[in-house]
């Protein structure tokens, strides 16, 4: 092996080590909580009518009438239903708007 090729080998090894260090640093910088999806869950109660819940889902969540009816039926029969998924910060305004209408909604991660 000539000195030139030996020098090339060393510089390639150093470059590979540097790339690995960069990749590790990039992985450390990722906030895993940003990657985890949460669910907006609505719970059953004995206060709100089907019509009120359905109209809320149509208006706030932009669900179709059929989707909203299905969610309301699931809430009635099972006691709860996940009505939307996403990042917790994105779900918060939906939760607040639903709760302002007297419906029990919670963000669950």
Structure commentary:
By secondary structure, the protein is α+β, with helices and mostly antiparallel strands. The protein has helices spanning 3-29, 50-61, 65-78, 88-100; strands at 38-43, 80-86, 105-108. The chain folds into two domains: 3-30; 34-108, 2-Layer Sandwich (Ribosomal Protein L30, Chain: A), CATH 3.30.1390.10. The chain has a three-stranded antiparallel β-sheet with strand order 2-1-3. Helix 2 crosses helix 3 (65-78). The chain is elongated and about 65 Å long. The model has no long low-confidence stretch (mean pLDDT 84).
Layout of helices and strands:
Layout: H1 3-29, E1 38-43, H2 50-61, H3 65-78, E2 80-86, H4 88-100, E3 105-108
Antiparallel strand pairs: 1-2, 1-3
Helix pairs in contact: 2-3
What overall geometry do the principal axes of the alpha carbons give?
A: elongated
CATH architecture of the largest domain: 2-Layer Sandwich
> Count of DSSP helices?
4
CATH level 4 superfamily of the largest domain: Ribosomal protein L7/L12, C-terminal domain/Adaptor protein ClpS
Q: What integer value in Å does the Rg equal?
A: 26 Å
Mean residue pLDDT: 84
Question: CATH class of the largest domain, please?
Answer: Alpha Beta
Distance between the termini: 59 Å
- Spatial strand order of the main sheet: 2-1-3
Uncertain segments of ≥5 residues (pLDDT<50)?
Answer: none
């Amino acid at each position: 092996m000539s000195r030139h090729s030996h020098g090339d080998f060393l510089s390639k090894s150093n470059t590979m080590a540097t790339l690995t260090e960069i990749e590790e640093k990039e992985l450390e910088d990722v906030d895993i909580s940003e990657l985890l999806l949460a669910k907006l869950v609505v719970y059953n109660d004995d206060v709100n009518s089907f019509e009120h819940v359905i109209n809320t889902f149509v208006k706030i969540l932009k669900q179709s009438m059929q989707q909203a009816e299905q969610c309301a039926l699931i809430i009635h029969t099972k006691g709860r239903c996940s009505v939307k998924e996403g990042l917790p910060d994105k779900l918060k305004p939906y939760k607040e708007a639903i709760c302002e209408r007297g419906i029990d909604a919670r963000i669950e991660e």
